[in-house]
Amino acid sequence: EIVLTQSPATLSLSPGERATLSCRASQSVSSYLAWYQQKPGQAPRLLIYDASNRATGIPARFSGSGSGTDFTLTISSLDPEDFAVYYCHQRINWPRTFGQGTKVEIK
Amino acid sequence: EVQLVESGGGLVQPGGSLRLSCAASGFTFSNYAMYWVRQAPGKGLQYVSDISGNGHSTFYANSVKGRFIVSRDNSKNTLYLQMGSLRPEDMAVYYCAREDGYNYYLDYWGQGTLVSVSS
Predict the structure, then answer these.
(1) Alpha carbon A3 to chain centroid, angstroms
(2) Distance, in angstroms, between A79 CA and closest chain B CA?
(3) Which of A72, A94, B42, B43 sits at 20 to 30 Å (Cα–Cα) from A85?
(4) Residue B51 and residue B24: Cα distance in Å, rounded?
(5) What is the per-residue pLDDT for B102?
(6) Using alpha carbons only, what angle is made at residue B58 by residues B57 and B61, rounded to the nearest 5 degrees?
């Protein structure tokens, strides 16, 4: 089973600041990695797929990079609606796995 | 409009069974693989199971293998999760989600149904 480790667990930032979230895989997932956003009481929403492609309707301030075992989600300038929990997810093999999440909170 | 609506959650005793359903609408259900993902209270997302569009291929997390069975009825546009030998650690909100047929990620999610396991 591929383990995805996200860091940091919590990121405290102010609106307008840049957020950089990390996801590291225990073995290569090539580029088969996605990022999801989840707000309290809501289902997750797909943000980024195949490491660097924005899903439909996702603002350009969200970007993803990486391949192999190291991936980054960057939010270039935090909007108040971006404070949420972010999860990475791999689909290269079964069982599918998720990272444990990074909470982006208002400083 | 794509809609996924889960049902069947509730309180069950340890060792008990429960069947979850996910009613799908707004797309050709049989063309898409479907997933179950759960989230324990205050915790992160955990993959549970998935099933191919025709129902011939099924996959499970190690933690539920042998206890849960995923199935679908394409004539009813419904996904199921039969859960048995339930444990306290199975308590969670269970989401169904659709796998995008082009990029193979989870593009639509239901709002979830809560399963509580307690005596």
Answers:
(1) 15
(2) 23
(3) A94
(4) 14
(5) 87
(6) 150
Report the residue of A2, A39, A96 to disrupt the B interface, i.e. the one with the largest count of B CBs within 10 Å: A96
**Looking at the partner chain, which of B47, B105, B111 has a beta carbon nearest the beta carbon of A95?**
B47
Chain A interface residues (partner B, CB cutoff 8 A): 1, 32, 34, 36, 38, 43-46, 49-50, 53, 55, 85, 87, 89, 91, 94-101
10 Å Cβ neighbour count for A8? 12
Distances in whole angstroms, Cα of residue A2 to Cα of each of A38, B5, B33, B61, B95: 22, 30, 21, 12, 21
Contact A13, A23 (CB under 8 A): no
Q: What is the pLDDT of residues B70-97, one digit of tens each?
A: 999 999 999 999 999 999 999 999 999 9
Q: What is the pLDDT of residues A15-46, one digit of tens each?
A: 999 999 999 999 999 999 999 999 999 999 99
Non-local (6+) Cβ contacts of A39 within 8 A are A84, A85
Question: What is the Cα–Cα distance from A59 to B25, expressed in whole angstroms?
Answer: 27
